């Protein structure tokens, strides 16, 4: 039986940072993650839609999950970024924004507002943060059961191994004193079996706890140049028409130009139409807001936060 003082379940930012703090203090731990990628909601991809783990080749990436952080509001996070030696840059906000109020009136320009404190982004996307933490750690396995004994907690872990072109599930046990659940409560309730079982009211509470931003989706359009800046536009737009309701400049610091928008369409509605139809309406909207140059894409991809990436070249 494997032993550790603390088991951290979930290798998103919270789990990785917890492991980083324990490692710096010399405290024994094991970090367990079910998926084949780290970062949780943080996911940054290259212009071709592929994930990268080579930080030297990752400056031209786009955030499908969280995009910004605010050192003025989040001093601990700002300090961590500095401690890890990561480069950051301010969100581009110079110029006018575009407002689309109804399908019967043309979009109008107005002076854009400037965030205070400034919205900051990381070179290489927010995944640069989780990757920098991960490079200082060990780990990755799927937890399927937690069993509390009189003296410890037994964590049953499922390993996926491949031999002779066949996949096998192997289970091992970690015996720990404490468990840190660093993942959404509803996923804990759905995927991990507890012995003894969780109290019914707690299990129901966890299962019904919403995950922040889970129903939201982003759309990215990637270009060779940020042509909107030449028009005196910031790349920001608000629309009551849609399908995108809030749009921003998503250009990489040292790479492709891009615009991204949040869908204002509910998940069930998005799932009722094809990906191609969603992309068509998004392209048409960007042309309405930013002109015909918005049609000349290098690449375009869309991602539902709870799903995998879909990408196409144009």
Instruction: Please write the string of helix (H) and strand (E) elements.
Output: EEHEEEHEEEEHEEEEHEHEHEEEHHEE
Mean pLDDT: 86
Structural class of the helices, strands and pairings?
A: alpha/beta
Rg over CA atoms, rounded to whole Å, is 22 Å
* Range of helix content: 10-25%
Task: Provide the low-confidence segments as ranges.
Answer: 302-314
Give the CA-based shape.
elongated
Count of DSSP E strands? 20
How much strand? Answer: 25-35%
Record keyword descriptors for this entry.
five-stranded mixed beta sheet; eight-stranded mixed beta sheet; 8 helices; 314 residues; alpha/beta
In brief, what are we looking at here?
The chain has helices at residues 13-24, 75-83, 127-134, 185-191, 200-208, 227-230, 267-271, 275-290; strands at residues 2-3, 6-9, 29-32, 44-46, 61-63, 88-90, 96-100, 108-111, 120-122, 142-148, 153-163, 166-176, 178-181, 193-195, 217-223, 233-239, 244-249, 257-263, 299-304, 309-313.
